[in-house]
Model the fold of this input.
Amino acid sequence: MNQQTQPLLEFRDVCKSYDRTQAVESISTAVARREFVALVGASGSGKSTLLKTVNRLVDPSSGAVLIDGDPVESLPLAALRRRIGYVFQSVGLFPHMSVGENIAIGPRISGQKLTRERIAELLDLVDLERSMATRMPNELSGGQRQRVGVARALANEPQLLLMDEPFGALDPVTRDALGERVRSLHRELNLTTVMVTHDMAEALLLADRVLVMEAGTIVADETPQSLLHGGGGEIAQSLVAVPRTQADRLAELTR
Amino acid sequence: MSDIWTALLGLGDKLAAHVLLSAAAIMLGIAVALPMAIWASRSPPIARITLGFASLVQTIPALALLALFFPILLNLRAIFGEGLPTLGFLPAFLALSLYALLPILRNAVTAQTNLDPGVIEAADGVGMTFWQRLRLVEAPLSSPYIMAGIRTAAVWTIGAATLSTTIGQPSLGDPIFAGLQTQNWVLVLAGCIASAGLAIVADALLGTIEKGLRTRRRVLSLGGLAAVLLGILAALFVSFGNSDDDRIVIGAKSFSEQYVLARLIGQRLEASGYTVAYRDGLGSAVAHRAVSTGAIDIMVDYTGTIWANEMQRSDNPDRDAMLTEIVDWEQRTSGTNVVGRLGFENAYGLAMPRAKAAQGGVRSIGDLAVRAQSLTIGGDPEFFERPEWVSVRNAYGLRFADQRTFSPTFMYNALRSGEADVIGAYTSDGRIAADDLVILDDPEGALPNYDAILLVSPQASRDARLLEVLRPLVGAIDVEAMRAANLSVDREDDKLSFGEAATRLAQRVGLGGS
Done:
């Protein structure tokens, strides 16, 4: 396989069990370069666990995860994580570092110093004022914090961006705006993005491809269009039904 | 009030020694606790074991912990050789470090386990290595809590360090123990004020560092740190800056006579151009060990004490035979030099108020044995543990209604107030005459002889001039003179300081002018 046809990310028979429960059951799938994939499912469906096998916050019980054809274990842990952007629900900004220091942390721990100009550019990317760089995390709103989280994930110029319920704790307006921003960053920066969410509407609006998970397995693998046209089976359709019904009701109200 | 000021101003050396001991112990505590805390934060079983151990240590009374290091270090000599000190700084340092461990460890472990899991996930997620995560995230976020633990440890350690006096380490406990011995409350108060003041200052400075870390204000934490280091440097300067190694160290056990005699010897040496330091308040076994290993240079001991406790003998020969054997034994086992008898005896005896003894017709211990079942006996904390007591009890079949322990000073008060009917007394004690007590005869010869003798450590014995200066003390001090000197520091009013009492004693027995 050459560089163009080889998938950027590939799961081969990935299983993960904790004590007696099986969180992920033999999942095999691939994510192509520049694809935006959403992993959707109820809590406990295993979507978050699957995502974390990529940057090895979780190690699979069996099976393999490959990036560019290389198993993720072949790289030192820290080096692997430094080339993957990671955004998650609780953001995890370092409370003792300024916004600028938080954004620059990835390059800093690999021995590079980020210029003030570059920090400003990263703040531009996530629609934050450049003057924010000197503020402390506890002075920011929830939405601003997650924007900083995204900027921090992009600081090492990763090819692959992992997002674990990134907008879960945000209010709807902020959520919508930040979602749009991430979607356009995905395009502008030629990223490959995998996003975990329990919100089917968000997945349909942002992703190129939606994987629906249930009890540790993938039960549907469809484009948003096909899901909206009734594809993907029963479980997927029950998830799609929620935003569709809401949309229908809203439409009725405007009549 | 001016007395307290004078006493406080005389405590410079002790304060410096106290600061250095406490600082060293806290630093070792930190050096041990932090790696343990890191390990414990990665493994719950380790956390349970380390915290359990530290809590267990905390339940041991500080005094006992300090005392326990003497036998421990003695056994460790098998590994580290005879040069390993068993008294003074080392055991105090180790025991206090153990004591400092718990608060630091507990706070560090708690801080680690309470870190926001989101922040830890982020640290891993951005690709930090173990050490980067520790240095960049965990350490700065835990530091205020750890500093709070260090504060607690500092206050505890500074308080407990006063007890290191008993194992031969100079500290602010010296005036407390000396004052308690002679009911000199000015000295006790001065020691308490100094050590409490030190604890308050240390707490405030470490609190400033903590506040600086908590509010991320570098100036505060660095300023506090600088002040702490400055204090330690000043203490180092006082302790070592003007010290010369040929100081002669004179030891004293924890009772008045010993303090006075130590000053008498010290003043004599100073008059001959020696520099002198005192190591006061030593336990009996500790003191003998100290002189035989050279931890102190000179002390006054008693033949009967060495005979029973050091040589483990239970027979009771006459005083000349006993002295000859002791001189030989000291020379053979350690090379300690017995310069000679001072001239008086400070025996253990059983003492009763004269009126009470006459009323009951008690003249000897034999008479006492008949009436003992209705009487209470008092003794100092050592008395009932000593082989002399066992031997006198068995020889006369003594059975008392009650047996009570007092500090030596309070023992005489107990006799006066009737809380005790008879006490284990020291025959050279000034209060025997002052309180009109009689020492009961010992027809069976169960109590051994207690001639005061002058011991010089093997190292100091090489100094011929020193021995020359000490020689005139032999046979110079009679029991009446000693009793008077003891009374002058023990009595409740118009107390003399140990130094004044020593000067008067020297004049009285004709040693003053030399």
User: Anything to note?
Assistant: Chain A touches chain B through 22 residues (CB under 8 Å).
